[in-house]
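Q: I'm writing up a methods section and want to include an example of the input and output format. Could you take the sequence below and give the corresponding predicted structure tokens, formatted cleanly so I can copy it straight into the document?
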Amino acid sequence: QVQLVESGGGLVQAGGSLRLSCVASGSIFSISAMGWYRQAPGKQRELVARISTGGSTDYADSVKGRFTISRDNAKNTVYLQMDSLKPEDTAVYYCNAADHRGYTLAWGQGTQVTVSS
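A: Here is the clean output for your methods example:
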């Protein structure tokens, strides 16, 4: 099994920055892609960004140019650098690990990001 532990959420003013971290443990050999999703109140969970073992990345259109996902395979850690934050970025952010078929192996517990206007 894979376990994911997130950190780095908080309250920030619009235009500010936050950096989220997610550390994986357990059966990490089975992990292929890692990513960040978010869920705002009353909305469905949505993909924010993901990164493959090789470093290929995908971003939601709403965060392109503002968020950067990176991965340190030696530390089994994925990061999400969030810049130029907007109130609409307010949500609970979840770390995700998936295998080579794209199947979810684990979710993190979630970390709250609140952007004030």
